[in-house]
Every structure is written in structure tokens, then in C-alpha cells.
Design brief:
By secondary structure, this protein is mainly alpha-helical. The protein has 11 helices and no strands. The two termini are about 25 Å apart.
Length: about 220
């Protein structure tokens, strides 16, 4: 699926396949992924909205979110050690300031990246749990599709990424369907995971962007 595709039905199909992709990965080698994804997609957003008008996350919730992020993507256990050692009051304060900074995405991300182990990618996951209409999660698969690069995890790159997914969500919603930037990210992730598990025969190069050799900080 090319990022430039404007057929909402194609995106809806990829998005609707998201739960089955999660289930398939859980059966292979990620047995906790289904429960972690339910926590991230359903339980955590509900908790945050219950805490309005001053939402925040706790250290334990950040730890569970990090488990979700690493299980759905690349496993980096050192990050779990970092976040588990964070003081709960510090996490609550930083996340509260970040949520209050929205819709200023740059400021919101910067408020979170003061926490050890939290870079722009993890910050985007935190923000997306409260504001899926504004701040999509910065996953490798969606970065590759939207920007042709999943190696640069800087704030500057995230702002470009968020802007592109916001525009795509608006474009796809113009025909009567409703898409958020987070829906776009999940559709891209779902499609990429489906492609990676399918036979690689005559694959369209547009669905497999070239890889650069250097990786910047990704947390």
C-alpha cells in the first residue's frame, strides 16, 4: 500500500486487519502482545480521560506502555530498566505538563523527553494515548511508509511525520469516512506486518523503501 493511495477502502481494510495482525504476532513469539495492545489502545486512553482536566500517567503505566511499544516493535529491554527506575511524581509531573501543552506537539514531546529512557518515539506513544486525533505513534513501519526512513527519531522528524499523517487522515476523512492520524499509523503498521509475513514475490518497491545505514536515537 503506497502512502499516496487515496482510496479510503484500502486504508479501511488495512486498519480492520490490525487486531488479526496483533493476534498472529502473539501466536508466533509475542504471547503478551494481545493484552498489552488492549491496555494501550483501550484501557490507558480511558484512564487518561478519567483524569481530565489534568491527565497524567504513572510510572507503572509508562512501564506497561513501554512493554507494548517494544513488543509490537523491536525489543530493547534497557529502556524498561530506565523507565522502571523513574520516580512516580516526576513521571506524573512531566506527563501532565506534556498533555497540557497540546496542541503544541513540539513542546509536549519536549516535556516528556526529560525522562530517562523516553525519546520522541516513546513520547509520541504517550501523547497518542490521549490525543490520537493529533499525535500518531512514531512506529518504524509508519515512518518508512510516510517518510521513506525509519532511522531518524529526532523531534524534527517526528513533527514532519505527524504533519503528514494528519494530512492523510484529513484526506481520507473527506469522503465521509472518519480517520485519525493514529488510524493511519495502525493501518500502515498492519499492512507492513502483513507484507512481511507474506511470500515476497514481485513486491512493489513502493511498499519497501530503501534503508539508510545510520540510526539516530530511538526511545
Amino acid at each position: 500500500m503506497d502512502f499516496g493511495c487515496s482510496d479510503a477502502s484500502v486504508w479501511k481494510e488495512a486498519l480492520s486487519a490490525y487486531p488479526s495482525r496483533i493476534h498472529t504476532l502473539s501466536l508466533k513469539n509475542k504471547p503478551n502482545l494481545v493484552s498489552l495492545d488492549d491496555f494501550y489502545c483501550n484501557h490507558l486512553p480511558s484512564l487518561l480521560h478519567q483524569r481530565n482536566p489534568n491527565p497524567f500517567i504513572t510510572t507503572r503505566e509508562l512501564y506497561d506502555l513501554m512493554q507494548w511499544k517494544l513488543t509490537r516493535g523491536k525489543w530493547r529491554p534497557r529502556l524498561l530498566d530506565f523507565v522502571s527506575s523513574l520516580d512516580d511524581a516526576v513521571v506524573k509531573s512531566a506527563s501532565q505538563k506534556a498533555f497540557q501543552s497540546l496542541p503544541d506537539i513540539s513542546k509536549a514531546v519536549s516535556e516528556l523527553t526529560v525522562l530517562k529512557g523516553v525519546g520522541p518515539a516513546t513520547a509520541s506513544a504517550i501523547l497518542a494515548a490521549l490525543a490520537p486525533h493529533l499525535t500518531p505513534f512514531m512506529s518504524d513501519e509508519a515512518m518508512e511508509a510516510a517518510l521513506g526512513n525509519s532511522k531518524d527519531y529526532s523531534l524534527k522528524q517526528y513533527l514532519k511525520f505527524a504533519d503528514k499523517l494528519q494530512m492523510k487522515a484529513k484526506e481520507l476523512s473527506s469522503e465521509g469516512d472518519s480517520f485519525t492520524p493514529s488510524d493511519v499509523e495502525r493501518a500502515l503498521w498492519s499492512f507492513a506486518v502483513g507484507q512481511s509475513s507474506a511470500p515476497q514475490v514481485n513486491q512493489d518497491p513502493k511498499t519497501k523503501p530503501g534503508k539508510s545505514s545510520k540510526r539516530k536515537r530511538k526511545n
